[in-house]
Structure formats: structure tokens, C-alpha cells
Design a protein that fits this description.
Structural class: alpha/beta
Function: Catalyzes the reversible formation of acyl-phosphate (acyl-PO(4)) from acyl-[acyl-carrier-protein] (acyl-ACP). This enzyme utilizes acyl-ACP as fatty acyl donor, but not acyl-CoA.
Order of helices and strands: EHEHEHHEHEEHEHEEHHEEHH
Protein name: Phosphate acyltransferase
Catalytic activity: a fatty acyl-[ACP] + phosphate = an acyl phosphate + holo-[ACP]
Helix content: 40-55%
Number of domains: 2
CATH superfamily of the largest domain: Isopropylmalate Dehydrogenase
Pfam families: FA_synthesis
GO molecular function: phosphate:acyl-[acyl carrier protein] acyltransferase activity
Shape: globular
CATH topology of the largest domain: Isopropylmalate Dehydrogenase
CATH class of the largest domain: Alpha Beta
Length: 327
């Protein structure tokens, strides 16, 4: 069985929603073993499912969402995220899932597992819906400042992940820019372009932000500062659209009737733009499988994050990335 550690104490709705999502995953995927990490008495009290494939490992401390990541990881040795990653380091679990403090998760992952040889900086990869499928975007905030070779490594890792986990043959990779022309952009994109052009990935060139959800490509590469801005803005837009539709449809009896007839369409749209459906974002470049669920993740998101971790383990994504000749 594939064993996945879940940080039961991380996230805005921990531990109840985290445990609920872990139970859903355990019930849906009987070939997955789940190790809940956190305060044992609290977890056992909230654990209402009786699944033989769920176990609990005690961790006396937690790291809050607003704590200093590196300081908290160093000082709180018995924090749930530290304990979960120690289990991964000792090969007692195959992957770690957390909805907690992103910086602390990344810092602990680097302290415990380290980077893949040749990868200078890990990247956070996130999946967005497109007109005809999904697109993987990285880096979404692990690194605010990057050099051209970092973006090249992001592109190579993203291409491998899209092919192995998202099952996209020869994924199309684009470099995010202010224009499609190779001679347009800032120093970073101008210097990165020839590196990607000369690489072995299926690089289709510079792309503008409007192309991210067009369905014309499978992987978008950018620096972490821009990526995090896109991530936060994208999440707010999807929530705004759903709320706006609900508000407009509740104005009067006629719109309510129209809404009843259109419910299947609305549910389909909501599912496509709901970030809970994607599950979580992998830390690519870390020498182990770490999946970051959204801080506001509820049960469905945790269940899907466990699924993403399972697929990454099954495809041995770390080994696949190690096989890439990085430079």
C-alpha cells in the first residue's frame, strides 16, 4: 500500500475538515494507507470513521498560519509538519500532504528531505482549468526572485509532472511574458527564452497571460512573484463569478425558475473553477513528494490532495525528475 502522511493540524479548518477529508480518501482508495499526524487525543476525538487504513502519529506542537516559517520549523521540533516530514525522511510514508503554513511546509521539506540533485530551487506548481482541460503553472510563490536557469528547471520539472501525473503526451510549455515576440520582455524572460528554445521540452514560445486558460498549452512557466499574484487573483475571480451568478439568479421568481432549469450547467461550471477539485500543489524539486493543499481547504480538497499524492507516488515523479538532465 502507498502510505501518505496528512498534517491533521495544518489549515484554517483543521483538524475537523482535514480528518474528514482523510477519511473520505481512505474510504475511496482502499489501496492507500493514511497516517494522520498531530495531537493524538484531538485527532482520535474527531476521528469518526473506522477505516483500517488510517493510523495516527502524535505530534505535540502546531505551526500557525502567520508564524515565521523558518523560525517556527527550527524551534518547534515536534510540530505536526516536522513529524510528518521526518516520517517521509525515514521512508515510513511515501508522501506528505498539508494545508498549513506554506513557508513552513517548504522550509521543513528542504530541511528534512533536501533538494533533488541539480535543482537549485524547488517550485510550487498549481493547476488551473482551461477551455478544454487543465494547465500546470509554476512557480506559484516558492521563489520571489529567479534567474534564467531556474525558470529552465521549472519548465523541465513541469513538463515531467504534466506528462507523468496529468497524463499529457509531449506537454506544450510556454514562458509567461508581456508579449509573444521573443525580443519583448524583461531581462529574465529575454535571457530564459533561448535556454528553453534549446532544451528538449516541447517549448512553444512566449505567451501572454490571456493564453493561460485558453487551452493552447499545458505548462506555464514564470517567476514566483508573478506566479503568486496570478494564483491569488485567479482564486478571487473564480469565487467572484460564482457569487455573482448566485446573486443575479436569486433576484426574483423568474430567475429562480431559470436557475432550476440551468442547475446542471451551473454545477459543471462550479466544478471546473473550484480549486478544491485540483486537490493540491506539488513542491517540485524537493527530494520527496509533498503536496500543499490550500489553507482554506475543506474535506473535498484534502481528499483530492491525497489523490494527487497517490498519483505522484505511483508514477514515481521524483525519480522521473531526477532522470532529467538539468543545467
Amino acid at each position: 500500500m502507498i502510505n501518505i502522511a496528512v498534517d491533521a493540524m495544518g489549515g484554517d479548518f483543521a483538524p475537523d475538515e482535514i480528518i474528514k477529508g482523510a477519511c473520505q480518501a481512505a474510504g475511496e482508495y482502499p489501496d492507500i494507507a493514511i497516517t494522520l499526524v498531530g495531537k493524538k487525543d484531538i485527532i482520535n476525538k474527531a476521528l469518526k470513521c473506522c477505516c483500517s487504513n488510517i493510523s495516527v502519529v502524535n505530534a505535540a506542537q502546531t505551526i500557525g498560519m502567520n508564524e515565521s516559517p523558518v523560525l517556527a520549523v527550527r524551534e518547534k521540533k515536534d510540530a505536526s509538519i516536522n513529524v510528518a516530514l521526518q516520517l517521509a525522511k525515514e521512508k515510513k510514508v511515501d508522501a506528505v500532504v498539508s494545508a498549513g503554513n506554506t513557508g513552513a511546509f517548504m522550509a521543513a521539506a528542504l530541511f528534512k528531505l533536501g533538494r533533488i540533485s541539480g535543482i537549485e530551487r524547488p517550485a510550487i506548481a498549481a493547476i488551473f482549468p482551461t477551455a478544454n482541460g487543465r494547465v500546470l503553472c509554476l512557480d506559484m510563490g516558492a521563489n520571489s526572485d529567479n534567474r534564467p536557469k531556474h525558470l529552465k528547471q521549472f519548465a523541465e520539472m513541469g513538463s515531467v509532472y504534466a506528462e507523468k501525473v496529468m497524463h499529457i503526451k509531449s506537454p506544450r510549455v510556454g514562458l509567461l511574458n508581456i508579449g509573444e515576440e521573443p525580443e519583448k520582455g524583461n531581462e529574465l524572460t529575454l535571457a530564459t527564452y533561448p535556454l528553453l528554445k534549446g532544451s528538449k521540452i516541447n517549448f512553444i514560445g512566449m505567451i501572454e497571460s490571456k493564453e493561460i486558460i485558453s487551452g493552447k498549452l499545458d505548462v506555464v512557466v514564470c517567476d514566483g512573484f508573478i506566479g503568486n499574484v496570478i494564483l491569488k487573483f485567479g482564486e478571487s475571480v473564480s469565487s467572484f463569478i460564482i457569487d455573482l451568478i448566485k446573486k443575479e439568479l436569486s433576484r426574483n421568481a423568474i430567475t429562480w425558475l431559470a436557475a432550476a432549469m440551468m442547475l446542471p450547467v451551473f454545477f459543471s461550471i462550479k466544478k471546473k473553477v473550484d480549486y478544491d477539485e485540483s486537490g493540491g500543489a506539488p513542491f517540485l524539486g524537493v527530494d520527496g513528494i509533498c503536496i500543499k493543499a490550500h489553507g482554506r481547504a475543506r474535506a473535498k480538497a484534502i481528499k483530492n490532495a491525497v489523490r494527487v499524492a497517490y498519483e505522484a507516488v505511483k508514477e514515481d515523479i521524483v525519480k522521473c525528475i531526477k532522470a532529467v538532465e538539468v543545467a
